[in-house]
Amino acid sequence: MALMPVTESMFLIAESREHPMHVGGLQLFVPPGDPHEFAELIHKKFTSENVHELFRKRPGRPVNVMGSLAWSREPEIDFEYHVRRVVLPAPGRIRELFQFISLNHGTPLDRYRPMWELQIIEGLADGRIAVYTKVHHSLVDGVSALKLMLNTFTTDPDDRNGVATWDPSLFHDKKRPEASSTLAKITGGLSFGRKLAGDVVDFVPAVTRLSVRALRHEGAQLPLRAPRTMFNVPIGGARRFAAESWSISRMSAVAKTYDVKLNDIVLAMCAGALRSYLIDQEALPDAPLVAMVPVSLRKPGEDKESGNSVSAILCNLGTDEADPLARLQRITDSSSRGKEMMREFNTLESLAFGAVALLPLLFAPVPGFVANTPPPFNVIISNVPGRKEDLYWNGGKLDGIYPASIVADGMALNITVASNGDSLNFGLIGCRRSVPHLQRILTHLENALEELEKATSSHVMLL
């Protein structure tokens, strides 16, 4: 059995029935011909016996609430369980699709099997085929999962060589020495123990160093300074999913006018939408909301299957500002200071900063902790880069890719964005009980972008 790094086992330890720790995604395809035949092809390709070792991993027994310290290998994949075909009920609207995703995303993955599932969804009235996948965060982070999936696509609509996400041909494995003997396993365990102890020893001074460096960056957003909101409450196990796409060209035009990054416009849209939503709920705090924005620590060329390698910066969303331009300025200032601070950190310090921000969430299941502790941040907003070209899989055009991430006690809403072609696709996941009428945030996102566009017109006229 392969020993499990702390960055992977922590997601198993934190998991419960109310807090499943998997990331997911919805892909929509325009089939090249008959939708049913295209669904058949997807099923055939995704039930191939060629499965990479990453997708054969499962937690080693005994499996319990505290997770496991080692990975086991599943020699035979039960495709009938892992790959499923479903048909939406009539009338097959996007509404029915989102209801299906909402119900399935709240169900934990089986720890006695490799922790991933795929659903091929037919029955959409417009003839598109949907594919919903979910994979446990202990296996891969959201960025890795998206890159693995994008590797199966091509820019050629006539290419018919597409394979499943877990096909070994998509991976570039490094040779790893086998530790098959009992002595080797014991030695490996001792080595893991030394490495873990070393990580802990190095981690403590890293936290101290980053605290000193963070204080030098006046204006940078630090943990535990966010206001309490309706999102920062204990949550139940049921989920609600909503998604929508916006044109990158449209958003880039606004970004160009103000000489800011596209991601600043994403954050400004989210800030405006959250402000309007909270006003509707009569729950807007006086202090500005704070977003945790994940950043990848993976270096260029690093293996896609290398597991989890992420940290985060905290960003002031300026939700106390009624003026959309003043709000955008607050966001860009906070984001740039956070990035400057992160650039000074080494990898261990970056991980430590992310751990400090996330640490209160690990204690969230403790009774009374969420209610009596300041939230480290209010919402997660993550932007996962995709591909700028139109993409195809065996002739089917990728018409949308929508992430569905994780929520937890004290963090009832998660907004994750992914791109394909000229589309920026927002995937919202929320606690069904704590975030009522989640889909209304989509309307507020559009309104927030329109506000920025109107302000842009006025800005251009003044110039």
Descriptive tags:
single chain; 463 residues; alpha+beta; Chloramphenicol Acetyltransferase; 6-stranded mixed sheet; 12 helices
Structural overview:
The chain is 37% helix and 21% strand. With 463 residues, it is α+β, with helices and mostly antiparallel strands. It has a domain at 220-386 and 410-462: Nonribosomal peptide synthetase, condensation domain (Chloramphenicol Acetyltransferase, 2-Layer Sandwich), CATH 3.30.559. The strands form 3 sheets. A 6-stranded mixed beta sheet has the order 5-6-7-2-13-12, sandwiched between helices. Strand 5 (83-87), helix 4 and strand 6 form a beta-alpha-beta unit. The protein is globular. Residues 175-204, 206-212, 214-220 and 303-308 have low confidence and may be disordered.
Secondary structure elements and pairings:
Blueprint: E1 2-3, H1 6-13, E2 22-30, H2 35-45, E3 57-59, E4 70-73, H3 79-82, E5 83-87, H4 94-105, E6 116-122, E7 129-136, H5 142-150, H6 182-216, E8 239-247, H7 248-258, H8 262-280, E9 290-296, E10 310-316, H9 324-344, H10 347-362, H11 369-372, E11 379-387, E12 392-393, E13 396-404, E14 413-420, E15 423-431, H12 440-462
